[in-house]
Amino acid sequence: MSTAPTRVVEEISPPTSPEQKKSARRIVNLILDGTTEVMLRLPEGEEHRLDSEELRVLLAIALARAEGQRVSVISHDVMLSPQQAAELLGVSRPMVYRFIERGDLEATRVGTHWRLSTTDVIALAERRSLLMDRVDTGFDRVTEAMLSQQKSSTAKGDAEESWRTATPEEKKRSLERVRKRTRGRRT
């Protein structure tokens, strides 16, 4: 049984049991402590030590799996079909063609088929993610502004009610405080 990757994007399913998640967390902790050497032992007994880049990849995979996430491993040096790009971006194939038409994605014709650089597709995914973060931030700011406006309009209504019910002496003291504040600003 071969376990070699056969696709451009190799997907690794998330752990299905608590024991698998625990194992992934243990791998993360062992790599992070900095004292662990990870060796790859071939069937013939030959061993190869994983370098820092390989450990970084292993750590990223283990971290995601420890969180119960699915992981995708992709080579940046291959060309993708529009369908593969769509799967990677989480959009429909027609949307990939729209990205190409709009100039968001550069594509090359190979015979009658379009091919896209993996690097370009990943860059678009990162731009879209950044844009979505900005949109979320914008929505948060609008929501905060609306809530603030509601509070200030409530406070304004409370102030108007307080003014109507205030005694002449309270109104006089309030006006004197306002005059003092505004004189301080003019100088």
Describe what this molecule looks like in 3D.
The chain has 187 residues and is α+β, with helices and mostly antiparallel strands. Helices cover 61% and strands 13% of the residues. It contains 6 helices and 7 strands. The strands form 3 sheets. It has a 3-stranded antiparallel β-sheet with strand order 5-7-6. Strand 6 and strand 7 form a beta hairpin. Helix 1 runs antiparallel to helix 2 and helix 3 crosses helix 4. The longest helix has 48 residues. The N terminus is likely disordered.
Labels describing this entry:
13% strand, 187 residues, 3-stranded antiparallel sheet, disordered N terminus, alpha+beta, two-stranded antiparallel ribbon
Q: What would you report as the Rg, rounded to the nearest angstrom?
A: 30 Å
User: Which class of secondary structure composition applies to the elements?
Assistant: alpha+beta
Uncertain stretches of 5 or more adjacent residues: 1-6
The rough form would be described as elongated
The total beta strand count reads 7
Helix content: 55-70%
How large is the count of helical segments? 6
Order of helices and strands: EHEEHEEHHEEHH
Overall mean pLDDT: 81
Strand proportion: 5-15%
- Separation of termini? 86 Å
Main beta sheet: 3 strands, antiparallel
Strand order of the largest sheet: 5-7-6
Kindly report the oligomeric state of this protein.
single chain
